[in-house]
Structure formats: structure tokens, C-alpha cells
Amino acid sequence: MSKKLLLQHIDVPGINTYEVYRKQGGYKAVEKALKEMTADQILEEVKTSGLRGRGGAGFPTGMKWSFLAKPEGVARYLVCNADESEPGTFKDRYLMEKIPHLLIEGMIASSFALGANTAYIYIRGEYFYVHRILENAIKEAYANGWLGKNILGTGYDLDLYMQIGAGAYICGEETALLESLEGKRGNPRIKPPFPAVAGLWGRPTVVNNVETIAAVVPIINEGGANYANIGVGKSTGTKLISASGHINKPGVYEIELGLPVEEFIYSDQYCGGIRNGKELKAVVAGGSSVPILPKELILKTAAGEPRLMSYESLGDGGFQTGTMLGSGGFIVMDEDTSIVKNLYTFSRFYHHESCGQCSPCREGTGWMEKILKKIISGNGTLSDVDLLWDIQSKIEGKTICPLGEAAAWPVAAAIRHFRKEFEEYVTNPQNIVDVKHYYRVNNLAAV
Amino acid sequence: MSQVAYINNRPYEYQNGETILNFVRRIKEKRNAIPTLCDAPNLEPFGSCRVCSVEVALAQDGPTRTVASCHTPVGTGQYIYTDSQSVQKLRKNIIELVLTDHPMDCLTCEVNGNCELQDVAAQVGIRKVRYPAGKNHLDRKKDLSHPYMTSDLSKCINCYRCVRACDEVQGQFVLNMSGRGFDNHIIKSSNQTFFESDCVSCGACAQACPTSAISDVFQSKSVHGDKKIQTTCTYCGVGCNLEVSVSNGEILSIQAPYDAEVNQGHTCLKGRYAFKFYNHPDRLKSPLIKKNGEFVPVSWEEAYSFIVDKLTSIKQNFGADAIAGISSARTPNEENYLMQKFIRVVIGTNNIDCCARVCHSPTALGMQRAFGTGAATNSIEDLDYTDCILVIGANPTDAHPVTGAKMKQKFMKGVTSIVIDPRRTELASYATYFLQLRPGTNVALLNMMLYYIITENLVNQSFVDTRTEGYLDFKNQILALDMDELSKITGVSKDLVKKASVAYGSAKAAMEFHGLGVTEHSQGTFAIQLIADLILLTGNVGRKGVGMNPLRGQNNVQGAADMGAQPHQGAGYLDVTNPEINQRYNAFYGAKVPSKIGYKIPEMFDAAIAGDLKALWIIGEDVVQTDPNTQKVIKALTNLDLLIVSEIFMTETSKYATVILPSSSFLEKEGTFTNGERRIQKVNKIVEPIEGTMPDGVQIIEVMNRMGYAQPAYSADTMLKEISQIVPFFAGVTWDRLGTMGLQWPVKPDGEDTKLLHTETFTRGKGSFANFDFVESHEIETYGKDYPYIITTNRELEHYNCGTMTRRTGNVAILTEDVLLINPADAAKELINDGDFVCVESPRGKVDIKAKITDEVLPGILSSTFHFPEIMLNNITSDEHCSEAKCPEYKVVSCKIRKSKGKYKKEMEAKFAS
Q1: Do A168 and B73 touch (CB under 8 A)?
Q2: 3-state DSSP call for residue A52?
Q3: Whole-structure pTM value
Q4: How many CA atoms lie within 13 A of A149 on its CB side?
């Protein structure tokens, strides 16, 4: 049984209430942080822990915190990015829904470490019922003196607000999130300046993912060094994985980083193998935007090493043969899946969610969807596949925010690893079965 | 310095903080190396089109990253590749994608030949679009609802330039992007038409739009015109630099040049769009002489002979002092100079004044007393260097729109701001501190501020010690004041005044602006001197980002006074009573100048009524509509033997003329205007004078010559040569030196101009402190009981003064009438509904105006404008004047109100129905 740091009490009845959470040792990290530690000591522990951003980019959290500008007399902010919208990712919802005080505890300790007296949780609009749970938990925290003025008599003040998003994927991008939080249209900002220098209301701001902030709690409780002992290499600690797709046991799993992918897919402790005894075809390992990998590349690296659930191992081989851990949205596809139709679904999503600010993404996502639609409806040509490749290459890295990349990578990877399937679609359109999404396509052998 | 980066492998030195785009563009032969779409000279980098992408490596031919050059800073040792194959392909693909949703009707498009999309498509070499026809937005409807602004969003390329221009330049936030991704589309306000939206028609969006998606009815971006001529705007004292497009001797449109120092590519709806008055059918096109009560067209010869005969006989029979002239702050310096020269030298009297009398005469006088020079101490560009902006009695977003927009940007970006005004103006609603005082109590409020600056220890003692005089006396008198009493008088709490004073006093650099809300009072000059005290007390003068900056009302009101169109000072502010100076004038003019101070405008009217003044020549001013107490002005004009009016249109004043001379507008002549920051700028002749008209300067010279004074023929060049010899601060001004940006006076003989005044010493030596106690306006003292309301006059964005020009342009479709602002509480008390006609009665008369219920004004306070002759608001304004400068008290008028009824109501309704 692997060690759980975030979800260890998840099954305790009533853990979403303050009383039960407190009884299980909740808010000890805040007590320790505010009473026994200085802000710098917490920062050091977070650095020592090797914690990396759990939102997808995997940037070292301690380093991000240390970039925060601290000019005299200027307010600083901590903003929690709870706008979890990446298809295939639902771990933050699970955490907030089941154990909301863990996030609040992490927010308080992190805000203290950053010297912020105001913090925000920007939560995805579609998480209707989670809003209520979180609001209620915040109310409880205020009522019990964990938020507000003079917390624990230490003189530290913190106000925590929840802001509900309005249903835009782009607002998960940290600068678009800040724009939205300020009440504006959620368009990403150009950088520099980075939020650490000029973020919310133009003030220094740290934006962290829900899971990242929650992980600060065990880091404070058990020490950064102990946290760093878990995991493998620079992938320390535990990670929440949202497992979905054609598996027997979809759900959220807390794993120690370094777990072999094969074990994760097939072990009964986790996904429990492929549904209906089918064969594995491909996996999108870190949320819809990371490159898809075919079976043989997801289980083993190109060098033949077992692929591990870690930042480094999943990234091994670059995008030629590897992928990314991303947000941990682990989408498993069985042998019957049409990669092309699946890609169409993804592309439709990115087209719908492009904010429209940068021309390559605004226009390009639309054309990728159109061309994919043309292909799956049997009207495609071989040159369409090349055009698709061309468009994605003109979006990737050529936009203000990473949404461009998010839209381009799945297209690139699908063509890279499953080009034959695309060619089959355009050369033998009569074989395409007219079904909506990634389901069975006759006579299309797995690659 | 090793600040070197490489462009296509060649090293160049870059400047700190420069973006790659600016770096590359600064190098001459690479000016056009990088195409752009979303970039615009007056907007912040945005990075949305990505057409400006370049490849950057950290070593020669090393691995590259593609970045948008417009917002990526240059770094040392960067290798920048502006046209690698990869970026060429990228650009091509972007344009291809954009073209999939763009109509291909270039040949009939209004911006054909001046379309940035077209240029970039040509530059990147688009020959075909690889994408099949798909869903598009080509069926978007045009919006032609507005008198000026148009949109055809089927041509929109989503570059956000219009949105950013609306936000960053004007600060109006009308335009926005709605929808997401492919559905992105520009909306106006809450998805309304231009006309329904909150658009202020500044045209910044139309100028910013790279295609014709947003444009204007004049198709300003079309290349149809055969030449473009730069000139200076004729409306307000901002003095925007304009670029006028002309075809076949007709003006097509006006744009604002991006490189203009004054307005940086921005201007307002008056400057940009309100030019169609110039060839309006109403233009006066022949001299007219009133014969048996009717105006009869006559030849110029006959008109001049008539004038010369009349003036000569009046001078013989009643003396030179029976003749007066009112010069115009709307006409160039050269013509103002000629007018005062004519009155002084040819007629032989100092009875010369101009409309500075009715606006900023207290500023000129008060600042001369305190500092020695009656002009703005700083420049508008100093807004970029200030930490605190104090605006007193001014509504710049309406009256000085370009400066107002700049201030609004600063206010919104959090620069500490203080607004003192009886009305909650647009700026007031953005201000850190808004002190809404009762009209007429500036002196009381300023005394409170001075008190708190002293008691809160915010006096800049070293400045006071070294550069001022009279401080001790001043301080003792201020400290003796009773703050509770003053707070009661002004209606502003002590606490708020104290906070504002502390904000002003503790700012590193605080900049003051004021308008007619300070000057047009019985204590106008005193209020100016108290503002000067505030500046002296805190040492806010003589450096960047500080100073005392009157927002001069009319385009050339500064120049008119500079040129000597005032009764006590000749050209260059030289004292007319000083014999030494007069000898200089005598020698220069070759004739004897009078040494008795002449009539100020209000005194001219009194003298006319008394029968002492027999002849008056008014150039370009409608005193009947705009001077206070209309009936008295009419009485004065009808009592004259000779009233000469030089005008472009038949005005309320010219109706009473004996002779009307049809003048040419600013678009038809050359000269110079001096703006509110002392900047002398060229006015170029854009088109030939409308047939039958003559420039005022030519008219004056014709009369001078006929009366025996040999004045050479008019040209701006020769006139400036003459002026520079007698006006000390014009010493180095020549027509050629003015260039396109102009020069700020004083201009030294070598041509060096001056942005900052009083840097080392004041013009008068030391800055002079002065105390003045608040005195209630005579108007309120006398009539306050029977006429319990106070009406204070103001201006609207769309119209200029009496509206002679703006009412003959599309502006009149935007703002159709004067309205009465009234607080909801008062409206309820008087049973007045929004839109009802209200009869406003003062001891002088009454007018009927449509009510607009608003909490912009406090209970008991009303406000209105006098742009429309249908209303003639000045029928009710008073005869009170500033005790020192004789500036009328437009801002405090006692009145009573009731709902209009019966006959008046019907008459007014009929008037507006037609």
C-alpha cells in the first residue's frame, strides 16, 4: 500500500466538516506554521520537499514562491487555481468536495509563508455543488478562528474569498484567471511582467493549483525532507491521478510518484486493467492536451525502460516518444478506440475554448476541427493530414498562452503515432462507421 | 556597455527595456523588416496577431524559439532572425487563416491602398489560401447608426486595436470583445449600435483599425485625397496637431498624426469630425451693410470705405477712446497682433480686449502677481511625471478632451487625484478625493487646504525660505482662520479637505490644473492667487510633474493675450502706462501709442450704454450669446453708432451689426495658435478661402492702410518677423523654426524653447504669498433669499462655446440641445420630471430649458450650458465680475425654478419639434 498524504482520511465519515477534519489532526499545519515557524522557514521546507506544481506544468513550487516580489507596503496575494477544466482531470474537484478543509489549511499556511493577507480560490463555474461545500468550509474556518483577524493570536490576518468562474477553460491559464478575477474578460496577459511581480490588481501574486496548496499541509506537518523521500528523483511526494476511460476502476488515486505505469493500469489497487478484457491501445497520460502515446510507448520508454508515473519518466524521449505527467488526467483507450474521432472531440473542445486573442489559435483551432470533421465524415484527402500537421506546427509555441500548445500537441501526437489510421480514414472512407465519438471503427487494425 | 544583440547575425546596440520590434524598427534599413497587425504606435504591446513573430537564438544559428517581437524584450547576445523560413511560413499561415474569414472585396473597399492587412498579405506573399471555404462572418451587418462612426465587422480581424484604443487612449471602455475563439466579435457597450452606445466619437478606434472594420463617415483612412496637410485644431486650448486630407480643394477628412507631441495620434470628435462647418451653406460670403434695418450685400470696397469713413468721423468727433475692438481668441496670433496694433496705433486707444476677459483673465492676472508670468508653468507631458493631480473647477474630459483623456488614464491607474468641483464630473467619479463644494466658495476651500498644509507640517520650508516672500504674515493670517466656519461655507467636511490637503502636500510631485470654475467668480483672481500660495507653500513649481496649469479654454486664448489683445498690456505683456515701454512701442510702430488703460469688455458695454463708446469692432466672438446678461449686451450693442463684426456665420451678435465682414475660417488661412502649454504651432492654409471671404488679418490690414498706416501685406512669415522683434518671449520664433511640432515660449533668440517656467527664479524674482478672506458673492447676498437656487454654467463635449461651428456639423445630431441638470430631490420638490421644460428665472430674466434629473449636482444647485441660441441661457446670468480682472461670474447665478407652463412650454416644444 503506497503512502497517502492528501487522501489518507478521505473515507472518514464527515471529513468534509470542520469537527471531523480537526479531530483527524486538521489545521495542525497552520498551528505549526503560524506559531513555530517563520515565513522563510516554510519556504525552505517547501523548497526542500521538491514539490512541483500539480496543475500541469510541474514548475518547482518553492522556486515560484521565492520569485514573489516583496516591495514594502504593497499587498501580495495568493490565488488558488481551482478552475480545473482539462478534459480527463477531476482530482481537484474530488479533493475540494471530499476534504475541503485540507485546501483551506494549505491556503492559510501558504498565505502566511508568502506574506499575503488576502487569498482567493478561483473555482470552475461548473462545479456548482462544490461551491457550496467550499463556502461552507470557509465559513467554518472563519467561525473557528482560522481565518480573519489575528489568527491564533499571532497577529496574522487573512481573508479568503472564493470566486466562481463562468465556464471558460482559458481561465485556468493563470494570467487569464487573474484577468477574470479582476472582473475582466479572461484573456491571457503577455509576460513579462509575470504574476510574481505584477499579478492580481497589478500586485505580486502567486497562483498555485489546488493540489499543490494542499500538499503544503503534509510538507509542514512532516517536514520537507520526509516529503522528498517519497517518489523518485525530482518527482517527489504523492500525486493525485484522475483515471478515466476504458478501465475497470475509474477514479481518483493518490500514488507515490515513480509508480510503474503498467502497475497503475493493471493493478487492482488502481485502474484494475482494461474494461471487458480488451487490449490497451493508447493512453493520454496527463490531461487531454498532453501527447497521446500508443501502448508500447506508454508502458515502456523508447529505450525499453519501464515507464514510471513521474515527471521525468513520462517525459523521457521528448515528444517524439514521450509525453508529460501534466495534471494527471490519465485517459485510457482500448483497442476499439478511433484515434481520429477521439482527436476530433479534443479539437472541438479546444476550438470552443480558444479565447480568440491570438490569431494562430483563434483561426487554427477552428480549422483543425473543420479538417478533422472533414476527415471523419469521409471527405478527407491525404493533403488534409499534411495541412493538419502544418496548422498545429504554426500554433505550437506561437501564442501568448499555452492553450495554443494544448490544442496543438494532441494533433501532433495523434498524427505522429497513428498516421496510418488517418490515412486509412481518407483512403477508405467507406469503412468509417457513422458513430459519434471514439468508438469502434471496422476493419481498422490497431497500429 | 555590452548591450548588443544581433539582427540576422549583424550586431547592433539596443536600448534598455526595448522590445525586439522597437529595436529592429529603430534600425533604419530594417524599419519594415517585421510586419505587424495588432501593433499600433499609441497602444501598449498586445501580442495577439503573432505576425511579428521572429526566431531568437542564444548563439549564432543555435536552436531557436519563436517569440512575438512586439512584447518580448531584447536581451544581450540574442540572435534575432526576422525572416527565417520558419517565421515566413508562420506569418504566411496566419494571414492565410485570417483571410479565410475576410471579404475579398479589396478593390471597392474604402481602405484600398491603405489597409494594413493588404500590406502584410503582400509583404508575406500570399498567393492562394489553402483552406476551403467554411463557416465565416462575412454576413455581419454594417452599423451606420452614428453621425460619424461606422463599423463593418465582416472586415474585423480581431486584432483588438479598437478595443485597446478605446481603453488605453480614450478610456471610454465602449468597445469590447464578446464571444470566444472563432465567435470573437467586437461589440459596442452592451451590444448596441454606435449611436446607442456610450461612444464619445473620439475616433481613436477608427484610426486604430488596420482595416475598414471600424471607420467613419468621412472614410478618413481612404487614400482618395491628393494631399495631406498638417495644421492645428481650432477648438480648445489643447491645440491638437491635425492632418487634413484634401482632394480637389475640398477637405475630405482629418486624422491625428501619431508623432504629434501634443496629442500623439489622438484627438476628439470636434477636432477630428466637426469640420464640415467650413463649407456649410450658411457661411457668410459677402460683406453686408445694414441699410434701413436690412442687411444688404456690398462690395469689399464699399464695406471698407464705409468703415473707414465712420471710424474717422467718430474719432474726429468723439476721440479715439470712443472706439474699441474685441479681438478673437479663435484667430491666429498674427491677426490678434494686427488687431491690437490697429486699435492702439491707428485708432490711438487701448480699448482692446479679447475673450480671455470672460475666461482666464483672473489666471493671467493672479499668476502674474504671484509668479510674474500668467501662463502654465509646465507642459501636459508632465502628467507622466506626477504623483498627484489636483483639478479645480475644470471638466477636461468634456472641455479639453485629449488632456482629459490623459488625466483619466492617470486617475484610473491610481495616481492620487483630487477634484474640486460643484459638479460630479467624469473625472470626479474617478478621483481619490472629490470635494464637492458649493459654487462660489473656492476661496474658502483653498484657505482650508492652505491651513491644513501648514498645520500638518507639509510646508516645503527650504523652498519657502529661498524662493518666496511674505510667508510669515501669510501664515499667521491663515492660522487665524476658523475651519468649522469655512467647512460650513463650502459644504465640504474638514476631514475630507484635510485628507486631500495631506495628499497634495505630501506628494513628491503634485500638478495642478484649473479651469473656468476657478476664474469665473467675483473672487476669481483671489482664488488663483491662493492656488499659487498652495504651490509656493509646497514647492510644487519649477520641475517636472508639478506646477500650476490653467486649462486654457479657446485654441488661442493664450496667444491673444500674449499678442496684447488686452487693455492694460501691449504685445508681450508690456505695461501700457509705462513711459519707457511706450517709447519702445512708439519707435517700433512708428507712431505714438496711448498710455491710458483702456476698457475691458464689460466696461465697453457700460460705456456703450452710457454713450461714451460709439464704435466697436468684434472679430469672431458672439458676445450676445456668450457674454453674461444678454439683454444688457444687446442694449449696449444697439446703442453704438458703428458695430463691425467679422464672422464666418450670422450669429446672435452679428444680427446687431452695422457692417458684417465675412471671414475665412482657420482651414483657409495661415498663422499660429498658442496652446495652453505655451506651444506656438503652425496653422496652415488647407484650402483657399471660401469665395467671398477674407481672413481677418487681411481685413484689418486693408482698413489700416486705408486709414493711413502702411502695414505690409499679410503672411504668417512676415508677421512673425515683426512680432518676434517686439514680444520678448517670441524672440527666436520664425515660421520655419516652428516646424510641425511648434515651440513653447519663451523662445530664445537661437530658437531654443522652454518646457518649464520658473526653474531657478520666478519671473518676478520671488514668489509672492497673498491672503484673501472668503466673501460671499454679491449675487447671493442680494438675491439669494428670493432666488434660492444657484445655477452654474458648464460645457458639453459635443459643442464648442456658442456652437456657431459645432452646431453646423454632425455634432448637433449627437447633442441636440442645452439641458438643465437638476438633483432628484429638487426635481421631486418642484414636481419636475425628466424631460419637462423648466422655467429658470433670475433677477435678469428667464429661460425655459428641458430638465435632466441627475445626482451630478447637489440639491439646490443647477447647471446648464449656453451652446444653443434657442435657449440663450445668458439671459439669466449676472452682471457680477471678478473685482480684479473683470471676468464675469458665470458660475454663481441666483435663480428660482418652476415647471414651464402654457405659452412658453408650447413655444419651446414647437422650437425643438422643428
Answers
A1: no
A2: strand
A3: 0.91
A4: 0
